[in-house]
Amino acid sequence: MSGDGHDPYNATVDLLERNLAKGKAERPYLRTADRVFSYGEVVARADAAGAGLLGLGLGPGDRVILATRDRPEFVMTFWGAIKAGLVPVPISDALSSIEIGFILRDSEADVIVCDAATAPAVVPAAEGTDATALLVDPAPGGDVLSWNEVCGAPATLDVAATTREDVALWLYTSGTTGEPKGAIHRHGHLERTPGPYSVEIAGMSEDDTILSMSKMFFAYGLGNSVYLPAAAGASVVLNDAPSIPGFVNDLIGRTQPTMLFGVPAFHAGFLRLADAKLPSTVRWVQSAGETLSSELFTAYQDRFDLPLIDGLGATEALHFITSNRPDDVVAGSAGAPVRGWDVKVLSEDGEPVADDAPGELWCTGPSTFAGYWRRPELTERAYRDGWMRTGDVVRLRDGHVFHEGRFDDLMKVGGIWVAPTEVEAVLTSHPDVEDAAVVSVDEGTGVPVVKAYLIATREDGPLRQELIRLCRSRLASYKVPIRYEVVDELPRTTTGKLRRFILRTPEGQTGGEDGR
Q1: Confidence bin at 176 (pLDDT 50/70/90)
Q2: What backbone torsions phi and psi does residue 264 show, to the nearest 5 degrees?
Q3: Residue of 20, 26, 172, 186 with fewest CB within 10 Å of its CB?
């Protein structure tokens, strides 16, 4: 049970180091293709990482950006930073230098940790800032320091004088505006999340081996692969490669996990594999991040004789707000509120709606975020009388939440919010593109894809390839449109605003060429 908010408390000591107090130091925590790291080893290496960061001159509350693939050093730095009173800030390993540069300036981070895959974007972004780049892989020389030299030497780390109310981590999100912003979470939020979901609903224990297709920079993946398994003493399979269904199918066969976590897009792709198999060890398959259709739920259960347990969460809530249960699975729903959470559905005017009527989901619970970094107006908009708005359009039926989309125009791709205006700005920077509108469309698979409608002076294959290269050079990979269609005009209001909802209707989806 949580104590007073001002009592001494540190999430690393509680959630990670509890595995030492119970004599579980030799139990496996992190599994890679090359080796296994026990809880005792991770605790020692987290101490080394935290001490190394303090040795660079960092102090309480200073930010440390984690921009690596899913690898042990990410986990060790995360826990070490929190124990040291620093604030880890996980970000996607697919961001461009421009996107990383924005986050570096906005967060005023002192350190950014990268690896060989992310260094080409991180190092240029760090130039001209006060941030020190630490490279996990062998350092190439120059101004980039070696993570191993800074954070790898054995060291004793005293726990920082933190409380449950102190800031533990930030998670960047596009939220409901499209502009990246840091959602602030406290030590107490990490403490309060495992019991109600991973223990009571998922039944996670030290006998489990977890494999998450959602990556650790993402709030959902961070819980799946880092702090929820630690709280349970479970083992985690780390996959530093993209979650391609065929590769993951082989990985599942080799590692024999008991619990799988992913988004509907992955589950749909896995289902399409003719040779996809789930070993008898798998007892739990979770879906979250975007709407899980009844069709996908049914097809998955028919194929693998396991239900996809759907849930709904938010970066601002840290993990799940609602979830189905093993003994209460309702196809097409995101389940009922997790213990400690209350939900209500309101109209755009803030009034309660009738049962089974659409409205915006509001929630209150034990880990709603402490605010957006330097965005007081957005923080104020997100809260009302202790309730947090999610921006999700839902229906509440028999105590279960049915997700139907968003009040705004943001798209959710692979469980991550994408602002169409950001992609449109890149497309219209091409000299032959006069106007653009980007939407997510469902082509009948139940999984949304990004499509771009263009007004252009050309309509040929080379233009599409040029646009793909342009987008890939300036945007994270998941933001790059999959489909492209040149049209004569875009639907706009008399004031010039795009009417994207028309393009999302079947009548508006007239075709388009594959942009992959």
Answers
A1: very low
A2: -55, -35
A3: 26
User: How does strand 63-67 pair with strand 111-114?
Assistant: parallel
**What is the rounded CA–CA span in Å between residue 210 and residue 203?**
12
Q: What is the model's pLDDT at position 495? A: 42
Q: What is the 3-state secondary structure (H, E, C) of 102-149?
A: HHHHHHCCCEEEECCCCHHHHHHHHCCCCCEEEECCCCCCCCCEEHHH
Cα–Cα distance for residue pair 184/87, rounded to 1 Å: 10
Q: Which amino acid belongs to residue 208?
A: D
Sign for the pseudo-dihedral over CA of 202, 206, 208, 212: positive
Considering just the CA atoms, what is the radius of gyration of the chain in Å?
A: 23
Chain center to CA of 252 = 21
- Max Cα separation, the chain? 69
Residues forming a β-bridge with 260: 211, 285
Tokens standing for residue 307 = 């239900």
Handedness of CA 126, 319, 226, 10 (dihedral sign): positive
**Which run of H or E residues covers position 235?**
strand 235-237
Q: Classify the phi-psi angles of 252: left when phi > 0, otherwise alpha if psi is within -120 to 50, otherwise beta.
A: alpha
Q: Count CB atoms within 10 A of the CB of residue 152.
A: 16
DSSP 479: G
Q: Where are the alpha helices (DSSP H) in 219-325?
A: 219-222, 228-232, 245-255, 264-272, 294-304
Per mean pLDDT, which range of 45-59, 157-171, 198-212, 494-508 is the poorest? Answer: 494-508
Kindly tell me the number of DSSP H helices and DSSP E strands found in the chain.
Answer: 18, 27
**Tokens in use for 451?**
């499509």
